[in-house]
């Protein structure tokens, strides 16, 4: 559970409308079980480049093209990773005051920072920010000019940091130089990988017969996919609830959209479908709203309120039939036995009568 939370926090604020973007994410924690004190990850175009934490001797690299980058830029890479590791002490000193007045900090805290730079390779425009989060909530951010308090408790820190002109100059230069330099290296080695387009597998899911039907797409890339419900070929919004785009462990993405079924008559189901499309790809995926293709692990309420599935029902029916057969055989056996006993009794009576008549 904590590992999933950690990954979600590291992926915060990775989306960007610009053509290429890099997020340099670090996370600092204290008093949180199963979470390392210091964690870092670079994310280029939604793709995890490397991961490290304070318990590791070496960073963990995920992709072959990143390994090629390291091989060709070994010295620069080692200097970069060393800087990421050493930044732990700076981050800790800069954020000491974040939780001093926060009730959420009791028993532990999590602070995250996302340093982001964006680049349009057509206009060569560079932009970016440095954003801090405090216990999962946006706290304070630098917008290349000044600090912006995103939480009331950050107002004092904003005034203190804005009064330090050298600090603002440092972050502006860092975003335009160090972050952009790393982004260009990732672009030069990984552009063919991050510019690929992959369609997902799409399925229809439903928890219970009265639950919304979920159209779930997983395995698409990049994270620009669109998914929606249609009626008679037209997109609908009423009774529809969209989920967020989430990362998969293989660097692809997943998303879903739910359709409320309570007001849709069964005879109208075939008028509805779910459509997924990926910008730049001609092919689209369409799933008809069909009971036969909906996947569910729903179990019908069984005997004494216990839920049983169809296989369990089959077993129960078989057992009941076997018991009934045994009962029927027993009754037939009893009746046969009783008939035999009666016939024997009559035979004895007749024999006695004949003998007495003879005597």
Describe the structure.
This protein is of the alpha+beta class. It folds into two domains: 2-194, Murine Class I Major Histocompatibility Complex, H2-DB, Chain A, domain 1; 201-296, Immunoglobulin-like (Sandwich). It has helices at 2-10, 64-72, 74-94, 155-162, 165-194, 310-358; strands spanning 20-30, 38-44, 47-53, 60-61, 109-120, 125-134, 137-142, 147-149, 201-205, 213-220, 226-231, 234-235, 240-242, 246-247, 253-259, 272-277, 284-288, 294-295, 300-301, 307-308. It starts with a helix and ends with a helix.
List keywords for this structure.
Murine Class I Major Histocompatibility Complex, H2-DB, Chain A, domain 1; disordered C terminus; six-stranded mixed sheet; 35% helix; alpha+beta; Immunoglobulin-like; 359 residues; 2 domains
Topology diagram in text:
Layout: H1 2-10, E1 20-30, E2 38-44, E3 47-53, E4 60-61, H2 64-72, H3 74-94, E5 109-120, E6 125-134, E7 137-142, E8 147-149, H4 155-162, H5 165-194, E9 201-205, E10 213-220, E11 226-231, E12 234-235, E13 240-242, E14 246-247, E15 253-259, E16 272-277, E17 284-288, E18 294-295, E19 300-301, E20 307-308, H6 310-358
Parallel strand pairs: 9-18
Antiparallel strand pairs: 1-2, 1-5, 2-3, 3-4, 5-6, 6-7, 7-8, 9-10, 10-15, 11-12, 11-16, 13-15, 14-15, 16-17, 19-20
Helix pairs in contact: 2-3, 2-5
